[in-house]
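INTERNAL AUDIT FORM
Audit reference: QA-55
Scope: verify that the stored structure record matches its stored sequence.
Auditor: D.O.
Record contents follow.
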Amino acid sequence: MNQQQGYLERGYAFPTKRYCQVLSLKDNPALIAEYRRIHGAAESWAEIREGIRSVGILEMEIYISGSQAFMIVETPLEFEWDKAMEQLAHLPRQQEWEDYVSRFQQCAPGSTSGQKWKLMERIFYLYE
């Protein structure tokens, strides 16, 4: 599937909740192309994917438009964001990954994922 066809969403047999975040990338086409490449299945680090799941995150997607990255995180209802981000920050290789990707991102050196990505406020939904 692609952006015109839409993207499949994984369903769960239990209720979930969603967090949405935004991050500004450096406005440099070569860096953005590299950022896209390193997030592909062949390049992303297995330890990072495992760590994300180990803190209770069920699914994570990153979308990009220009120099803006948008992340959707799906979790069980009992998930505690601050607690999970603290756990994530201390997992093996996590800070190494954050330092590696920071060259593409508009962020302070040494920032954790929880510090770089800014939670977004939902202002509309069409569920009812």
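Auditor finding: record pair retrieved intact. Residues 16 and 33 are 32 Å apart (CA to CA).
Action required: none
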